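#lab-general

N.A. 3:47 PM
ok so I finally got the sequence cleaned up, no stray characters, all 339 residues accounted for. can someone with queue access submit it? mine expired

B.Y. 3:52 PM
send it over

N.A. 3:53 PM
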Amino acid sequence: MVSYMNVLLYGVGGLVVAGMALLVAFQEKLVYVPVLPGLSKAYAITPSRLRLTYEDIWLTSSDGVRLHAWFIKLFPNCRGPTILFFQENAGSILFSMLLNALTTVLDIAHRLEMVRIMLQQLQCNVFMLSYRGYGASDGYPSQHGITKDAQAALDHLCQRSDIDTSRIVVFGRSLGGAVGAVLTKNNPDKVAALILENTFTSILDMAGVLLPFLKWFIGGSSSKGKILNFLVRSPWSTIDVVGQIKQPILFLSGLQDEMVPPSHMQMLYAKAATRNNRCLFVEFPTGMHMDTWLAGGDQYWRTIQQFLEQHAPVKKEVESSQNENGNNSFFSCCFSPLG
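B.Y. 4:20 PM
back already:
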């Protein structure tokens, strides 16, 4: 009996040690999945394939990394809301390449189709950034670096004269929600509002979801969590960030999410709403991790449009100027209600 218990204890100990070694040595490769193994980083298509008007944008982060982005506009002079969109991983969250990657991967064609519909439904512009190490961007991903990338994208938009910089809204899905939450918290005067979709509470908690034996050692707040949290270099603790955001937040939750438990979105909302009375939580019963926008149909787009109308409205002086100049057709195109 003693011998059996010793074997069991050694086995459990070995499993923990192996998990720790894997986490320390390879965590960036496990957290960030710019492209699935065997596939190319090169863009399969560009927005022009979908007949979208866009600019190729090249930025430099504050630490000197060269970044690529697409700025996709409804039409050249549209001054509707500008959505700064932060993407999910190629195959979604931590260790996703081990878990049904082929069924959860959202390739660039699928994402661009979503953006095409977004432009039509919301009458907006969309800025899509490739994080360092993703797409055509240089460098290697890390939480510290991607935070700098997001700031570079926002700073670029704020310097543009062809958009209404008072109507910049950050939209983050999955990993992108963690990125967007940090950016929104850090820029209360530059970001009008935040939209979070199917976002996790933290990478620490996701480690326990995807590798259950780790939940005993990793999870919770990055500062007050479990014993091995200090080993995680990219904790992306969104649960610690949302409570500090002052801007309005829209939470979009797909209840069939197969990657991030919907309870994570509920916890994020609960944390934010205790300090921010401009939070809205909307559930989509058939929405999965990558297709909530598709499963949600008209309700999905109408929810976002109403949120934008309330929290990123057109300036009255702009509306007055448009009417005085006789450009009602332009104005109605840019700010018409959802049909």
